[in-house]
Design goal:
The protein is 62% helix and 9% strand.
Length: 313
């Protein structure tokens, strides 16, 4: 696919009279099992850069450095002062990326990422912008708020929170986030089948990015809901009333514990609210546009293969 992008970029450069073209995509590219950071074609005067391979930290700076390196390679310019040999790696990239000359027609220089799938996976999650999930799905958020308001005035919840230790509270919080993530994946069919051997690695990568994207997104939703509930609890729950049930003169830790349990319970209940969201709206909130396109293409290809196999039988 990246060679196809090179052809498109070449046509665009010729149409506009550009000296060269740099094509930046969020499509994850791989050479075997190694993520491709960028490809360069000197004949076409085109550079293709794949954003997911840059990971999460300082990726904008790394993109600029890789593009500068490949343009230097394209024009035969030294990568750094005193470097007489074309194609050396920039110092800042020495540990993160590796420059190779692949045996592939139309590609002169290729940058590969270290740490393989981990960096690629983190980059895919970043491209999905999981924090958008907070406002992208109103159903779960409204449901969580509504149930939180109910639990806020439930004295049994106060007593439970006061009797639970920090580890038990932490387990409850993690469990509520996990339940929401599993519910979203199962109810809205976000899990990609891995039965096809030729697409197995791709499906595993997509599923891993789905889980991590939803974990981060639901985690952001939990923090937002917790902050709102903590403010409301501080206004509504007076120390005199709360103290009758927690058994002590309530302090900030008591309010924090009660609010944690309220938010965890509201998050579980909010999973029910996600049932009112359409599958398309959940995918729009959880994935980037290109990611949705890729998943739809893979789904259509899988259905086409199933139909073909059924016809042969």
């Amino acid at each position: 696919r990246h060679t196809e992008m090179m052809a498109v970029a070449q046509r665009r450069a010729r149409r506009h009279g550009w000296d060269l073209a740099v094509c930046v995509t969020d499509l994850p590219l791989r050479d075997g099992r190694q993520p491709i950071v960028a490809d360069m074609s000197g004949e076409r005067r085109v550079v293709v850069v794949s954003l997911p391979a840059f990971g999460v930290m300082s990726w904008r700076r790394r993109v600029r450095n890789v593009v500068a390196q490949l343009i230097a390679d394209m024009y035969g310019i030294a990568a750094s002062p005193g470097d007489e040999h074309r194609g050396r790696r920039l110092p800042v990239l020495s540990r993160r990326f590796r420059r190779v000359e692949p045996e592939q027609e139309g590609v002169d220089v290729r940058m590969l990422a270290s740490r393989g799938k981990t960096r690629l996976l983190m980059g895919m999650v970043r491209d999905n912008r999981p924090w958008r999930l907070v406002l992208g799905m109103t159903g779960p958020l409204v449901g969580a708020f509504a149930f939180s308001a109910f639990y806020l005035i439930n004295t049994t919840v106060w007593e439970l929170a006061a009797s639970m230790g920090p580890l038990r509270l932490l387990g409850t919080v993690l469990g509520s986030i996990g339940i929401m993530v599993v519910w979203l994946i199962v109810y809205h069919h976000l899990w990609e089948p891995t039965r096809e051997a030729r697409t197995h690695d791709q499906a595993v990568l997509f599923n891993a990015s789905t889980v991590l994207t939803l974990l981060v997104g639901v985690g952001c939703m939990f923090v937002f809901l917790y902050a709102a509930n903590l403010v409301i609890a501080g206004v509504v729950l007076t120390p005199g009333v709360l103290g009758q049930y927690v058994g002590t003169d309530p302090g900030i830790t008591d309010y924090a514990a009660v609010t944690l349990l309220i938010t965890a319970a509201g998050t579980v209940a909010g999973a029910i609210g996600s049932g009112f969201e359409s599958e398309d709206s959940v995918r729009s909130a959880a994935f980037s546009y290109r990611e949705r396109e890729r998943r739809q293409a893979m789904h259509d290809e899988s259905e086409s293969d199933d139909a073909r196999e059924g016809g042969e039988l």
